[in-house]
Amino acid sequence: MGKKADMIFLSIIVAVAIVLWGGLRYFSQVSGATAVVMIAGSEYGRYDLRQDITVTLPGAEGGYNVLTISGHSASVTDADCPDKLCVRQRSISGQGGSIVCLPHELVIRIDQGREGELDAVTY
Question: Which DSSP symbol is given to 62?
């Protein structure tokens, strides 16, 4: 009977851990997260990941990239750069994610941007 009680207890602990991990992951991605767009090293704009939008971004020296925000994630869905590596990169939604287009000097990164909280890294 002791082993059965141990297995039930362990199952409950694992279930609670999974629920907590999923909840923390969801809220860390959604709450106040923005896609920060940098073109040629300067901030071009910030776009809320909670709002579905499509924006055409200019390249540093001509050209374009299309930023699409949908389902709390950002991706480049079209570009006129020669290699189109930015289009093939996966969508980003969490802190630390980035999309880069070298020909257009474009960097898109995710910023959690919660007011009143300090980040471990200061820019």
Answer: B
Cβ(63)–Cβ(81) below 8 Å: yes
In sequence order, which residues have a C-beta less than 8 Å from that of residue 109 and are 6 or more positions away? 35, 36, 38, 92, 97, 98, 99
Which stretches of 31-109 are DSSP H helices? 85-88
Name the pTM for this structure: 0.67
At CA 22, angle to CA 21 and CA 27, rounded to 5? 100
What digits encode the pLDDT tens for the residues 43-54? 999 999 999 999
114 Cβ partners below 8 Å, 6+ apart? 31, 32
Long-range contacts of 43-47 (CB under 8 A, 24+ apart): 46/111, 46/113, 47/74
**H or E stretch at 48:** strand 42-48
CA distance 27 to 31: 5
Angle, alpha carbons 46-49-52 (nearest 5°) = 105
Q: Which residue has the tokens 């809220």?
A: 27
Tell me if residue 52 falls in helix, strand or coil. Answer: coil
